[in-house]
Amino acid sequence: MFNLDINILSWVLLGVQIVVIALVLLFVLKPLRIIRRLPIDYFVSTGLMETANDPLPVEEEAVEETEDSGEEEAGEDEPTEESEENPAAEIVEAEEPTMEIEERYFPKVSVVVYSTVNEEMLTEFLKILCRQDYPDFEVIVVCDASLEVSGILSEKYEELFKNVYVTFIPQGSHNLSRRKLALTIGIKAAKGEIVLTTVANAIIPSDNWISSMAAPFISDSLTEIALGYSRPDYSEIEGPGKVYKEFFELLTDARWIGYALMGKPYRGDGFNLAFLRETFFRCKGYSKTMHLHSGEDDLFVNDIADATNTAVCVSPESILTTRWGGGAKRIFNLRRSQYDFTARWLPLGPFVRAGFASLSQWLVLLAGVAAALLSLPNLIPAIAATLLWLAFIIWETSIYRKAAEKLEASALSWQLPLFWLIKPINNLYFRASHRSSRFKNFTWQRHKTVK
Between 206 and which of 282, 312, 317, 384 could a Cys-Cys bridge form, CB atoms 3.0 to 4.6 Å apart? Predict the structure, then answer.
């Protein structure tokens, strides 16, 4: 039963198991592994994950130099002949306070809020938003409502808030992406150097949200775009597929966040996205995708972001939660359909990686089962295949749970092996069931269905 007379094909299949497992854990799941190392209290510039756990290396080096040269500094207060005869040293000392003031410069931030929610929810959102501790910001609310309603809200909020401005979308704009039009109107009205886009049904976790999203621009003059992150309020989703939806959403978001941290940004989250106003107009805004209802986040980011001008802001103070009420399930499916549709204009690499991650689950399982069956009654291949599969699942689960912790999602456990296997089947079913409605993503066709 335990002799070494094993079918050669069983050895080959066990080898396939090992190769696939190694590829998945070392290469395919690299975005998740990078998120696992993400600092939870600081932004991370793309391409800098090697020092992500040491986010302030310059300051630390300065401290070390100060400690090492303590004796020399102690003597600096004593006048020397060289300093008395060289007035340049005094000039440098006099300029140091000016440098400190320049380092504390905070560029004005314009928060552009797209609103389709009721007045009560919008008012509550603005009360929280106006408590932000950032020293210089304004709020521009673009209402998807009539001019009359927008005028009423504008008068009300001018009395309640000193830095909130309200505008609206023209009602006749049926053949345009209303969200892109709303954001463009808000950005044109903005006076800040930095634009931060969001929605009125978001939950702001901290008074430091704006500060967190603006930090990359203050720290690095090369930064033109900061990728924030928002997550749905999963408590609003009902039904047996609730937990799977959270699993799917986390993998989708972890992929683009991980790629951005690898220096290959290709997608973003328009509900929590910051960029320079000048960059928006230099790149002609959403002009390249105005024929699509979606793409104001992923296609826009893919167009302007690269490894040198992009930062990732994912921390407890910057992660937003969006509330959709009774429409949560519908919105989830709509956003998934839109992302699936716009994927054709995005780089192929991330989606090939994701496809292989889904396929690999079945490859590892079926290769192990086949290796065990071909060598019966010898049980060595069956034991080896089982141990390999269990090690694969445990390692994969560990990576997922740590990434979920950083992105504030549920740390699933026993459900994960089943969800990994279900994912490719679910993808095929979702695309097949939504294929007939894909044309609605074009602005020039959706209005034909509206009665």
Answer: 317
